[in-house]
Amino acid sequence: MKTKDEAILEIRGESIGLVTENSSSEERFQNQTIRPILKFQNDLFVEVFKNYATKQKGVFFTLTPEKKMNYIENAIQRDIKFRNSLKGIIIGMFTITEYKEYIQNSSNLNKRMMNLLMERLKNQLQLLED
């Protein structure tokens, strides 16, 4: 029987992006852990964001594409409760080893996680329609 960590790594898939011996530990973590999780959890992130936008009086759905991109940025950067929820979805897919690495540099890794997630959502505006 597989351990939880083995199962997580198997369902998440391979590293996304180039990882070399010159890669910083943050870059390595981003490409080996964060990017595969964001890809794996993409459909969930889309639904979570649509639910968030609906609960915020649905204003998002009436905006122009440019303003929707700003809305996504503002929601993730300024709404701490929403941001923490998104972080939890990502951290919940960490192995124990990855979590131990994450807590060593959580501030910088949180920035990377949220920036990657913002870009991912912005690139999928059509999926965020009501």
Descriptive account of the structure:
This protein has 130 residues and is mainly alpha-helical. It has one domain (24-128). Helix content is 70%, strand content 0%. Helix 2 (25-40) crosses helix 7, helix 4 crosses helix 5 and helix 4 packs antiparallel against helix 7 (106-122). It is elongated and about 45 Å long. This is Glyoxalase. It comes from Flavobacterium sediminis.
Secondary structure layout:
Blueprint: H1 4-12, H2 25-40, H3 42-55, H4 65-78, H5 80-91, H6 96-104, H7 106-122
Helix pairs in contact: 2-7, 4-5, 4-7
Please supply descriptive tags for the structure shown above.
mainly alpha; elongated; 7 helices; 130 residues; Glyoxalase
